[in-house]
Amino acid sequence: MMQTPVLIKMGDLMTDDEFFTFCQMNDTLDFERDSNRNIIFMSPTGSSTGNTSSTVLGEIYFWNKLSQLGYCFDSSTGFLMPNDAVRSPDAAWIQKHRWEVLSDEEKEKFAPICPDFVVEVRSKTDSLKYLQEKMAEYIANGCQLGWLIDRLEEKVYIYRPQKELAVVESFGQQLSGEDILPEFVFDLKLIQ
Question: Can you give the pLDDT at residue 67?
């Protein structure tokens, strides 16, 4: 059964700091916040989805370890987007110079930055439409490259600013990090 996460309408009842504290006090639960400041309750991911996310993040990590061009983040990381949403992609990467200008205090909370690269992995219960809207939000907030990996249909939707959505129709191919992650190649056979 496809579903969207549970949304609790909050308006301006919590500041950014209060939302961060709320999340820390309830650290056994996963939350995001939309641009209207509504709290979104996220369910834990299934094992297959978690394995896919970890595989992708692992490959990004090893590429980044060699290139030393930026910083990698897992699905537990919240980012405060320019539109006021707090999002936690399944995998994210930020260029070194963009991350290093943030203060230590900003890095300890939901960093006020949109990642340069994000990955979302669709699980069996995820609504494709919801995830597509989330990917469009990343791009609208400054993300330069995004991959929505649809495990159910074995497709990848590739998002870039001011470019048409590209769709990779099978997991028998490789994805390129393009100019954002230079020389990074992800073999989709790793997640078949």
Answer: 97
pLDDT digits (tens, 9 = 90+) for 121-158: 998 888 899 999 999 999 999 999 999 999 999 999 99
DSSP string, 125-183: TB-HHHHHHHHHHHHHTT-SEEEEEETTTTEEEEE-TTS--EEE--TTSEEE-TTTSTT
Q: Write out the DSSP string of 26-68.
A: TTTSEEEE-TT--EEEEPPPPHHHHHHHHHHHHHHHHHHHHH-
Give me the residue label for tokens 């048409």. Answer: 164
Tokens of 178: 């393009």
- To which residue do tokens 């301006």 refer? 12
Look-up of token digits 């690269």: 117
Closest CA to 99 of 88, 110, 109, 113: 113
Cα 186 versus chain centre, distance: 17
DSSP H or E segment with residue 24: helix 16-25
Cα separation, 25 vs 19, in Å, equals: 10
Assess contact for 155 and 167: CB atoms under 8 A.
yes
Q: What is the DSSP letter of 83?
A: T
